[in-house]
Sequence to fold (178 residues):
Amino acid sequence: MVYLEHFSDHPLDYINEFYTAEKVRIDSCPHCHSCRRLHLHGIYHRHVIWYEDVFAIPVQRHYCIHCGKTVSILPSFCHPGFQLALPFLLELLWAFLNRIPSACALAHQHRHFITRRFLFCLNRLIEYFRICHDPLIVFPDFGHKKAIKLLEMVYSVGKPHIFGKRYHDHFKIGFMAL
Fold:
């Protein structure tokens, strides 16, 4: 299982803070709901693609002694299940949906996969905005225009990591997860 926490807005700042700041502790297990604090269980490194750079960031792990499962704490600029950083992912989606030529060197299949995955998850995004913002929001019928309106709503929430964390806290999955 993954928790999203806001540490910083950039991977380099996160890496610097990771080794100097106090570690985040989890007080109860999200799997078995044990009230005992989870034990720190080491770290692993995860790759994050931030525009033209690739960073290997450390990710903190916790272990529940009751159920034996682990929980990882990702920074909020990461999207669970994707190596692309959330701001970069949203900018790519915006460029793809608005047919803006991108300077990014992603392969055509990768761009197609990201766009298809986003279009596949539109209904859950609509549900999120209707539950958390306004139940009377009207969306266009056409999928392409609907996707552009949803991306505009994502950007209206504020910084991408704010939206990503709120969405993950609500559904316990990333907004492009199946």
Remarks:
- Residues 86-171 form one domain.
- The chain has a mean pLDDT of 89.
